Amino acid sequence: MATTPTPHNAAVEGQIAKTVLMPGDPLRAKLLADTYLENVEQFNTVRNMFGYTGTYKGQPVSVMGSGMGMPSIGIYSYELFNFYGVDNILRIGSAGGLAPEVKLRDIVIGMSSSTDSNYPSQYGMPGTIAPTADFGLLSKAVAGAEKLGYPVRVGNILASDVFYTADNSHSKWASMDVLAVEMESAALYLNAMYAHKHALTLLTISDLPLTGEALTAEERQTSFTQMMEVALSVVA
């Protein structure tokens, strides 16, 4: 295991649980820790990317922000998997709904993650690799959602490097039954696959790029509690 702390994470070995919930927004990480965890200790404030460890129903769990985009989550998830001995990372984030049946506040689980990013090229594969979620985490999340009574949609999502698009690409992805677009999942899945660890992405739909409907920034930060509860059901 590499030396800790790292340039991006002030935690030392043993301060981070084997399972980490990872929202993009560090304030959402704080909200989750304050609302759901007991015996909470903060392990990171570097770059204001807050990280906390506590317990949920007696089980140790950590929560840490990832920032926006694949370069950011690529750094944090790589260090968690390879430097801190983390086995499972569940991204809990916001996304834009693309498929016609996806509505605001829907919960979407990314079974696979298509991408327009160059991130996969670093592995030098002799073809196109498919960034894919861990089935064990996926099945637990679906079962947890059913137990909680929260409907979820499961399928292919898009991890894009571009938020403000200059073309009609969202419609093209929607035509291939891609459910939603966000900016982190492919890098997370690839890091997990490379480290032989486990990852899953759970998303709440915050906007609909093809229609212009959207939630406010405050609603995105504070109201995605159902998604958090589904992620925590995997831990309990």
From TrEMBL:
Q: Which reaction does it catalyse?
A: uridine + phosphate = alpha-D-ribose 1-phosphate + uracil
Which terms in the Gene Ontology molecular function aspect does this entry carry?
purine-nucleoside phosphorylase activity; uridine phosphorylase activity
* Coiled-coil region: none
Name the enzyme group at the top EC level.
transferase
The EC number(s) attached to this protein equal 2.4.2.3
Looking up InterPro entries in the UniProt record yields: DeoD-type, Nucleoside_phosphorylase_CS, Nucleoside_phosphorylase_d, Nucleoside_phosphorylase_sf
Instruction: Describe the location of the Nucleoside phosphorylase domain by residue ranges.
Output: 19-234
Q: Which UniProt keywords apply?
A: Glycosyltransferase, Transferase
One Pfam entry for this protein is PNP_UDP_1
Q: Any keyword Transcription?
A: no
Which SUPFAM superfamilies does the record cross-reference, listed alphabetically? Purine and uridine phosphorylases
Q: Which GO terms describe its cellular component?
A: cytosol
Q: Which domain of life is it from?
A: Bacteria
Q: Which GO terms describe its biological process?
A: uridine catabolic process
User: What HAMAP family does the record point to?
Assistant: Pur_nucleosid_phosp (MF_01627)
Q: Which family does it belong to?
A: Belongs to the PNP/UDP phosphorylase family.
Q: What is this protein called?
A: Uridine phosphorylase
Q: Which organism is it from?
A: Lancefieldella parvula (strain ATCC 33793 / DSM 20469 / CCUG 32760 / JCM 10300 / KCTC 3663 / VPI 0546 / 1246) (Atopobium parvulum)
